[in-house]
Amino acid sequence: MDYFSGSLKASLLHKLGVGSLKRFEQTGHLEDLNHSVQMNREALLLRPVGHPYRCNSLYNLRVGLSYRYNQTGHLEDLEESIQLNRDVLLLQPVGHPVYGASLVSLHASLSVRFQQMGRLEDLEESIQLNRDALLLQPIGHPLHSSSIACLGDSLGVRFQQTGRLEDLKESIELNRDALLSHPMGDPDHGYLLASLGASLGIYFQQTAHLEDLDKSIELKRGALLSHPMGHPLHGSSLINLSEGLSIRFQQTSHLEDIKESIQLSRDALLCHPMGHPHHGHLLCSLSSNLSLCFQQTGHIEDLEESIQLSRDALLSHPMDHPLHGNLEDLEEYIQLSRDALLCHPMGHPLYGSTLINLSEGLSIRFQQTSHLEDIKESIQLSREALLCHPMGHSRHGHLLSSLSAILGLYFQQAGQLEDLEESIQLSRDALLSHPMGHTLHDHGSALRGLISSLRLCFEKTGHLEDLNESIQLNRDVLLSHPMGHPLHGSSLGSLGAGLILCFEQTGHFEDLNESIQLNHNAILFRPIGDPLYGASLASLGASLSIRFQQTGNLEDLDKSIQLYHDALLSIPWATHSMGLQSATSQTGHLEDLKESIQLNRDVLLTYPMGHPENGNAFYNLSVSLTIYFQQTGHLEDLEESIQLSQDALLSHPLGHWLHNASLVSLGNSLGIRFQQTGHLEDVDESIQLSRDALQLHPMGHPLRGSSLANLSFGLINRFHQTGHQEDLTECVSASKQAAEDKNSQVSHRLGAVKDWVLSTRPHHDLAQSNLDAYITGLSLISHSLSMMPIISLQYRHLLAVIKLPEFVSDGASQAIQLGQLALAVEIIEQGRGLLWSELRGLRTPMDRLQALDPSLVHELMDINNRLEILSMQNSVDHSTDLRSQHQMEIKRDPFGHSLSEKRRLLHAQGEIIEKIQKIPGFETFLGRKSFDEIKSAAQHGPIIVVNCKSLYEQVETLVEQLTEARSFIKGSPKRYNHVLRTTLKDLWDLVVSPVVTKLQNLQIPKMSRIFWRPTSILSMLPLHAAGPISPGAKEFLPDLYISSYTPTLTALIDAFKTKSGLQLPHLLVAGQYDKSLPRTKEEIDQVLQYQKHIPTTSVEGPAATKEALEKALVDHEWLHIASHGTLVPRSPLALTSHWLRSQGGVHNEVIHLAAAMQFCGFQSVVGTMWEMADMDGPDMVKDFYSHLFSDENRSQCNEVGAQARALSEAIKRMRRRKGVTLERWVNFVHIGA
Length: 1233
Hints:
Elements: H1 3-27, H2 30-45, H3 54-72, H4 75-91, H5 99-117, H6 120-136, H7 144-162, H8 165-180, H9 189-207, H10 210-226, H11 234-252, H12 255-271, H13 279-297, H14 300-316, H15 327-343, H16 351-369, H17 372-388, H18 396-414, H19 417-433, H20 440-461, H21 464-480, H22 488-506, H23 509-524, H24 533-551, H25 554-570, H26 574-587, H27 590-606, H28 614-632, H29 635-651, H30 659-677, H31 680-695, H32 704-722, H33 725-740, H34 746-760, H35 767-785, H36 791-801, H37 804-817, H38 821-840, H39 847-852, H40 854-871, H41 885-892, H42 894-917, H43 931-934, E1 943-946, H44 952-967, H45 973-1001, E2 1009-1014, E3 1042-1045, H46 1049-1059, E4 1067-1071, H47 1080-1088, E5 1096-1100, H48 1106-1113, E6 1118-1122, E7 1143-1146, E8 1149-1151, H49 1153-1159, E9 1164-1168, H50 1176-1188, H51 1202-1216, H52 1222-1226, E10 1228-1232
Parallel strand pairs: 1-2, 2-3, 4-5, 4-6
Antiparallel strand pairs: 7-8, 9-10
Helix pairs in contact: 1-2, 1-3, 2-3, 3-4, 4-5, 5-6, 6-7, 7-8, 8-9, 9-10, 10-11, 11-12, 11-13, 12-13, 13-14, 15-16, 16-17, 17-18, 18-19, 18-20, 19-20, 20-21, 21-22, 22-23, 23-24, 23-42, 24-25, 24-26, 25-26, 26-27, 26-28, 27-28, 28-29, 28-30, 29-30, 30-31, 30-32, 31-32, 32-33, 32-34, ...
Protein name: CHAT domain-containing protein
InterPro entries: CHAT_dom, TPR-like_helical_dom_sf
Domain CHAT: 983-1132
């Protein structure tokens, strides 16, 4: 073919190609496009290299192929189009009129291929081509602004791939320049506003500069104005602005932002009806915004609508919601993610995000099914995703947090510590990627991830530093989530949970009380209907239940049970059921325990077989059934409990946070069954399980003590069965280690002391170890009392934890048997004085110290006074004024406030005492007194310390008989007198006669003073009146010696010190008249007859109020009270009686009102053991005071022993009086100096 013919044919082919392309543009018929491509190929063949029109054919073929790729997606068309574009550029030197357009065209094709193939080199070349095109399109060029915008978009895409912040910054600047070239009214103005707004929004996520977010929202508003209803970009503009406002609300908590965001989301939904690809996404977005608004306002209708929208979203687009769908939806989501991964191989721009989607889906499925292969694959996918998003990438920190969380899940299932350690390190790295100042969401999320990992590590290793760090980080989170922040409530709850764990390890009550306060506050930020409202109720219930176990405050237990009930009504979770079981088991009510068991069964039914929560449900129900068996003795409950414990252990392998608890639960149940059946294999397995648990708690671990105690329990059981000495030896060693373990709670250590005592008591070769156990126990008891803010709780605690009087008596007996008499006295003094000594320590004479350092004395006395007021309350004050946040917190938890206040005051008191003890001569100030110091109590007469372990049953019988007869005294006075006479005779034979014989051997003169210091139930009996001294005789002990009592030897020593040197006292007489006490007025008049010998003031009738007495006592050293009265610990000055009648004992120890008066500061007290006959008042007063103020005794009326001798003389006269029954004179006692 000649040149002319070829040129003509090429021209015709070219025209046919152009025409077909134009017709395709009109009709969209693919055959026209295919015809155009074919014509242009043939024309190109006729226009070889060098042909003047070859460039035209290259260009037309490139355009056709590009169009066809857009229609069919055939990658070969795109590849050929790009090559043709390169050929065009080679034929168009720089400066050619369309060179710039060709650059732009190649840039566009490479961008498309990057989107399909993910080759970063395509994006890099595309950006460079765009830069080259801009050099040819200076300001003023018609394509300048579009090229700027295009380059800005490309740089934004590269930032998303690489995380290079400089690309994002340049993209923002280019978008600003493009916007200047397209002012308001320009068709592209709205699009460029939206583009710049989106870039600034992304930039805010990197820098957390709120001004960037504000500017982004402003630009998005402008875009919405430029895209009114009906504009194709109106819907997307609504979405963009809504998202920006939602993000700002999460940063600032400004309610108007979330409200506007919700309205915009509703408008956007109208633009994207059901069936639109974005409809499901918008349902999710609106649901999320409504949930955020509910957390701020508590409007339940927002929450209900949010839930419904989530359901609608699931129906619209189930794979967007794997967490909320059923398992079939999740399976489909995972399969679709796998298919997407095949379409997006390594190097594809969507490869990384596809890895993330599949990893998340597998992680969610693992949480539903516990299939280990899912979590393993999820971890591997997350690692690969991290490689696609290296350090510096905007998503790097998020992926670190995600992988950390997945490894944490894997650790809980597999128990490999290296997984947990890696999880912690990843959380730390994520925190470095999102430092303070980064977006609050990312920073807070990274902190929460690290907190979770550290707590898991603590639960695995017991390292307290991990827990402490998690708590500190939690405090940092709270700073990031201040009041009003959507996550403020959950941050409070999380910190409260951490502090509970800390308290369980350290026993610091400040942590427990702060946890309770935090949980109270968390509930305030979770209104009824909040998904986590029930969890907050349960957390508070758990905290109060733990505090009850420590303090015995029943109010805490009642509140705890109610909170668990409320929590179960909100969300029936297994953990709440467990909490209710724990709380109700404390009440001892069988119906509560039955309810707990049923609730646990209901929880178990809610989880299918294999569900990860099954193990927890097995454990909870097992514990409930074991407690129930201990109440009912139904062996089938114990058998079921053991089976459930075995199932729980299988569900909680080594490394699981409940593994140790499952070991202990199964071990305890087997030990209990052994006690029922005697099957040795049960106790063998129980011991092995205890050894396994002990291996998990090395030296220093806070739970090591309880593990040792469990092992001790199993060993002593087996020893009793087999008699193997090595079991006993190891049992004693384990109990001793548990009791002395300073990392364990004091209550646990006291339990170990009891085990130590019981295991050594029957064995003579272990007598010294037995005595060591008692000494260890006494030192622990005084520490445990500091946890009780009021006296009544302290008594209750001593009864619940360790029966104090018997414990002290047994310890003293053991010391006596070993010949350590001085130690026996020290034990009795320390034990009997635990409460009295604590209180008397608040009233320590400090005259000598006053001369040396008055300010120190003032400071100590001020603290002591406040401690005394706190300790003497019957209950805590609920009447706090609510005028401040602090006062509101006190009102919510008054008991916790009292407890914290006592701990604070005790700490301050300790610091002052430490200062005083550094002063020469005050080294033992308020310290425990040795026997050498205690024995000075005998300076005015022998002291008889009576410890009655060997006589306990006989003495107990005497007390029971006397108490029973006393209750019928009005109806059967003769019977009571008979029983009393028998009791006095038995007391003489059992106790007093041997003592008198010893006194006579020591040549103690007749009618000398002797001091009784009885222990345990002996304090309820009238030792001072024992007799007769021989059959048929009329003499009783008062005819031989003058008896006085003392609650403690230390109290007697202090009374002697204070009594010496007193001048003539001032007497205050107080009387309240009552029809049941007709001779009260006569009694008072009798006392007033002696006012010529002693300065006297009387307060009588209605004027004799507590306040009047308090005021008058300041100027009076002596007090005579004539009235009814009972022991009222709330107010020491209200301890009034008609000659101070006594009140029954606590823990078999009588607390006489007279002894209580001695505590209040009176060194010598005359009182009664029980209610005094009204007729005896005037006569006793006359005989007592006439002797005290006789001419020979008046000058010594205030000396040591004067009142005791006066009472002795008055009783002698009373006994000589006709008609006076035995119980009337036996009633009177003297206490003190």
